[in-house]
């Protein structure tokens, strides 16, 4: 079960990174841009590490305070949720 969750998180991180890279490439070329809410969506569904890593590596949206604070905040909140779920399951003997 844990393996599938890790596969999922890896997949959405890669997708989030690809979407971020596409948006960076689209900007100077006049291609259709990716809405900011789409990048936040991929972070919310678990792709925050990929989105954030891509942002830092390609220097995309790094001047936007909402991204530089929002994406790490989403990831921190998700970590808190994961720890809480783990503790609940562990305390009930389900892990």
Q: Count of helical segments?
A: 3
Give the class from helix and strand content and strand pairing.
mainly alpha
Q: What is the gyration radius calculated from CA atoms?
A: 15 Å
Report the β-strand fraction as a percent range.
under 5%
Determine the mean pLDDT. Answer: 95
Report on this model:
This protein has 95 residues and is mainly alpha-helical. The chain has one domain (2-91). Helix content is 82%, strand content 0%. It contains three helices and no strands. The protein has helices at 2-29, 36-58, 65-91. Helix 1 (2-29) packs across helix 2. The longest helix has 28 residues, at 2-29. It is elongated and about 55 Å long.
């Amino acid at each position: 079960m844990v393996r599938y969750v890790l596969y999922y998180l890896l997949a959405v991180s890669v997708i989030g990174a690809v979407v971020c890279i596409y948006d960076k490439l689209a900007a100077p070329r006049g291609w259709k841009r990716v809405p900011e809410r789409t990048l936040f969506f991929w972070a919310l569904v678990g792709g925050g590490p990929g989105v954030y890593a891509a942002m830092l590596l390609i220097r995309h949206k790094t001047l936007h305070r909402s991204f530089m604070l929002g994406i790490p905040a989403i990831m921190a909140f998700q970590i808190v949720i994961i720890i809480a779920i783990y503790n609940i399951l562990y305390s009930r003997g389900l892990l």
